[in-house]
């Protein structure tokens, strides 16, 4: 009969077993990825970027690289970031769980914080970073590898996230940062700059290179699928959205944008002087997983223009914090009315805040959202709606896109990027009364500056109307 093991021998056996498990868990990913994926994930450069089409296989490569990094190095931290935690959970979390199970990597899951800890004490975190406030929680990490995915959808705070937070977090391990994404509808922004920066190692491939895109038994080629999508949309293969999403090309794609903010046309620096008093509306979009957003719109009775003059966008705050912000803005701007969306218990909250603080908060109308988006678009195109280009609203206008809903056969606002600032601004815009302005009956003299501006607005309005008549502007989803 064998002698029982001593305490010291048990510790040695446990350590040897852990090392055996770790050796087994070390992952050779070359047999799982195709050459373009491998070239990117194997790139030793400290900063690299992949700008690809949709369905190019970026997510698969990211997951395998994160797992390889965590299982081959002891005690390191790897991080995956995209715009929101919910998106991160949908994009990579389930895939990481599947690979951890099927490859028997022995990672211990924490579904609350979306992390996987391996026997060698290395850990993978999956998270979101939707604004400047949320990036602060990553400052204390020491990272060996970091992926920032769907980078085209991040706001201007992406540069601060990279330069001030992640770059310093890589110091301890001389780690690597990899940005991935698809070209956005506007060839501008930090991701666009990185894709053209010689200091970043650059990679590009499309769905055409992905051998796993077509399922077994599918007789259609990638080219056939693209042509089928073109036929559905009623466009050619040279359509900007097709060039962006199927071929990974940077090209201006205004038709994909929900709102047409243009810096040259809609930006303003200071409110104009007027003999009329400034009138204001406060619009509020409430959320918790999403941010609370407050927009203040102002106008003068002697002008057709209205202006986004103030905004607050804040995540994860309570009713008391939101109420304090509204009281401060009410005292500052003395609004004609304040409107709030009726979601998330806001109906009861509006009644309570009115009673407690002697405010006048009304419930916003959420029906016919599609029509009011078009009215706001018309105001943007006619230069009668103004916002500062550095505002959250203006930056979000470059990122909120339409997408096709195959179930309803209608287009809808894509959930790839959600703008709270757009919703609060829309609520305020719907209640504004700048449209009551009546222009003077005196017509500008022909060929003067005023005459040319008036003719330009008439042509823009006619073009917009013709476009929407052709494309049936109300034939898309209105979730409200």
Account of the protein in words:
38% of the residues lie in helices and 16% in strands. It is an alpha/beta fold. The chain folds into 2 domains: 20-209, P-loop containing nucleotide triphosphate hydrolases (Rossmann fold, 3-Layer(aba) Sandwich); 263-367 and 383-401 and 412-438, Nucleotidyltransferase, domain 5 (2-Layer Sandwich), CATH 3.30.420.280. The strands form 3 sheets. It has an 8-stranded mixed β-sheet. Strands 13-12-9-10-11-14 form a 6-stranded mixed β-sheet. Strands 15-16 form a two-stranded antiparallel sheet. Helix 2 packs across helix 3 and helix 3 crosses helix 4 (85-102). The chain starts with 6 loop residues before the first helix and ends in a 9-residue tail after the last helix.
What's the arrangement of secondary structure elements?
Layout: H1 7-25, H2 35-41, E1 47-51, H3 58-72, E2 77-82, H4 85-102, E3 108-110, E4 115-117, E5 123-128, E6 145-148, H5 157-169, E7 176-181, H6 190-195, E8 201-203, H7 222-233, H8 240-247, H9 263-266, E9 279-285, E10 291-299, E11 306-315, H10 319-333, E12 337-340, H11 346-357, E13 361-363, H12 369-381, E14 385-386, H13 392-397, E15 402-405, E16 410-413, H14 420-431, H15 449-471
Parallel strand pairs: 1-7, 1-8, 2-5, 2-6, 6-7, 9-12, 11-14, 12-13
Antiparallel strand pairs: 3-4, 4-5, 9-10, 10-11, 15-16
Helix content range of the residues, please? Answer: 25-40%
Strand order of the largest sheet: 3-4-5-2-6-7-1-8
* Secondary structural class: alpha/beta
Please state the CA-atom Rg, rounded to the nearest Å: 27 Å
Alpha plus pi helix count: 15
Main beta-sheet annotation: 8 strands, mixed
Overall shape: it is globular
Please indicate the percent range of residues in DSSP E strands (runs of 2 or more): 15-25%
């Amino acid at each position: 009969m064998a002698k029982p093991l001593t305490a010291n021998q048990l510790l040695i056996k446990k350590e040897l077993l852990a090392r055996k498990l770790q050796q087994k868990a070390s992952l050779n990913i070359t047999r799982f990825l195709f050459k373009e994926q491998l070239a990117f994930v194997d790139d030793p450069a400290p900063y690299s970027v992949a700008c690809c089409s949709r369905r190019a296989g970026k997510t698969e490569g990211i997951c395998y690289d994160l797992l390889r990094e965590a299982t081959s190095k002891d005690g390191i931290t790897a991080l995956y970031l995209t715009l929101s935690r919910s998106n991160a959970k949908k994009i990579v979390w389930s895939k990481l769980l599947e690979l951890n199970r099927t490859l028997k990597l022995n990672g211990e899951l924490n579904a609350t914080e979306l992390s996987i800890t391996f026997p060698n004490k290395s850990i993978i975190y999956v998270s979101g970073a939707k604004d400047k406030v949320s990036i602060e929680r990553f400052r204390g990490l020491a990272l060996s590898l970091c992926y920032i995915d769907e980078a085209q959808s991040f706001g201007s705070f992406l540069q601060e996230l990279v330069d001030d937070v992640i770059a310093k977090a890589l110091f301890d391990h001389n780690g690597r940062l990899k940005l991935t994404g698809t070209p956005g509808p506007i060839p501008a922004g930090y991701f666009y700059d990185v894709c053209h920066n010689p200091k970043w190692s650059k990679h590009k491939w499309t769905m055409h290179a992905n051998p796993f895109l077509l399922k077994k038994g599918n007789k259609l080629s990638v080219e056939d699928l693209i042509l089928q999508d073109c036929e559905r949309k009623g466009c050619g293969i040279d359509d900007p959205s097709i060039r962006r999403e199927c071929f990974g090309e940077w090209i201006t794609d205004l038709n994909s944008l929900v709102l047409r903010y243009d810096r040259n046309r809609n930006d303003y620096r200071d409110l104009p002087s007027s003999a009329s008093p400034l009138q204001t509306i406060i619009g509020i979009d409430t959320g918790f997983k999403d941010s609370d957003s407050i927009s203040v719109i102002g106008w003068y009775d002697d002008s057709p223009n209205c202006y986004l003059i103030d905004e607050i966008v804040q995540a994860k705050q309570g009713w008391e914090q939101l109420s304090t912000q509204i009281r401060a803005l009410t005292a500052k701007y003395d609004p004609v009315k304040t409107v709030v969306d009726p979601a998330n218990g806001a109906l009861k909250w509006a009644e309570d805040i009115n009673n407690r603080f002697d405010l006048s908060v009304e419930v916003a109308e959420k029906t016919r959202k599609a029509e009011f988006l078009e009215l706001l678009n018309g105001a943007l195109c006619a230069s009668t709606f103004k916002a500062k280009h550095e505002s959250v609203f203006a930056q979000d206008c470059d990122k909120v896109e339409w997408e096709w809903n195959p179930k309803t056969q209608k287009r809808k606002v894509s959930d790839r990027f959600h703008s709270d600032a757009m919703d609060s601004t829309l609520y305020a815009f719907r209640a504004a009364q700048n449209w009551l302005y009546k222009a003077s009956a005196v017509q500008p003299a022909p060929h003067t500056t005023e005459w040319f501006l008036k003719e330009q607005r008439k042509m823009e309005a006619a073009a917009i109307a013709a476009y929407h008549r052709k494309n049936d502007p109300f034939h898309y989803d209105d979730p409200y």
